[in-house]
Amino acid sequence: MACLPEHPTLNTSSPPNARLHIVLPDRRNLPRSIGSKAFLILLCAAALHMAGCAGNPPVTATAGSHVVLYADLSPNRALAMQQEADRCVQEIAGCLNLEPPEQRAKVILFGSRKALTRYLEKESPHQVGAAAACFITQNEYVVVLSRHWRWAETMRTLRHELTHYLLAAHFEKMPPWLNEGLAKFFELGPPYGSAHPGCLRTLANTLRRDNSDILRRIVALPEGVHLSKEQYAQAWALVHFLASDPRWGMGALKQYLKAVDSGVDQVAQFEKSFGRRPEAAHSSWRRHLLKLQGQAEGPVP
């Protein structure tokens, strides 16, 4: 999900502690078949469910150079996540030859998707339903996500949203294909530039068709549009193709962003930055992806 500008809600203080009120069943009204141990499990499950759905942000903060992390984690785990987030911002900024933002991002890790949704309903309603989000208040960048049962997936999502934070700190106008394509490019972590298995799977049917209009459509998408799963994959694929070519690389992508940010038409600038119209690059783009597909472990379904 892209970082959306100028959200009207301002939240400058740490999230308040929430009081949790749970109405528990009377033990005498439960079936006799439910023993004391099962009853305790029921109580714990109810408490965890209510806590996860409350939508109140964690209050424990771990501050670093580029992010301040709010998360209900053990001190060691929170410190490790904060340090990884700092390292991620530094590395991605280096890849794009950008300075890390002066203003730190406020990163909030929720314990459940429901809690994240409740928070977005209050703070950023237009992003409700997103698995993660990045938005800007009047004085801070906010990144929100929920814990995944696989920690690696949580970190992948964090890297994706931190890419949006970094880009939003430098550019006001960002074509969706490049904003989301770069986020997908960096989300896998170092070494950056690896083939994205999920995107390759999504693009399997696309690669079987020789539709030269794909790139023109993805490059022409206006700012603010929500990309489909296939468009996310196409955006990653175009960024990977351009970044991997020594004639262009990340430097040309950055210059393209700067030109579009200044008001130049994003489709016309594509030809100026990369030497050909999007549709003219389709054959080379498709060969690049087929090569990546062939290098992947096993056939792409």
Summarize the structure.
This protein is an alpha/beta fold and 301 residues long. The chain has helices at 36-53, 75-95, 113-123, 151-170, 176-187, 197-202, 204-208, 214-220, 229-244, 249-261, 266-274, 282-295, and strands spanning 3-4, 61-63, 67-71, 105-110, 132-136, 141-146.
Q: Compute the CA-based radius of gyration.
A: 22 Å
| Fold-level CATH name of the largest domain | Glutaredoxin
Q: Report low-confidence residues grouped into runs of 5 or more.
A: 2-25, 41-53
Would you tell me the structural class of the helices and strands?
Answer: alpha/beta
Instruction: State the share of residues found in helices, binned by percent.
Output: 40-55%
Question: If classified by CATH, what would the architecture of the largest domain be?
Answer: 3-Layer(aba) Sandwich
Shape: globular
Strand content: 5-15%
The CATH class of the largest domain: Alpha Beta
Q: Count the DSSP helices.
A: 12
Quick one: how many beta strands?
6
Q: Kindly state the mean pLDDT as a whole number?
A: 85
- Euclidean distance between termini CA atoms: 26 Å
- Any idea what the CATH superfamily of the largest domain is called? Collagenase ColT, N-terminal domain
Name the helix and strand elements from N-terminus to C-terminus, one letter apiece: EHEEHEHEEHHHHHHHHH
Strand adjacency order, main sheet = 1-5-6-4-3-2
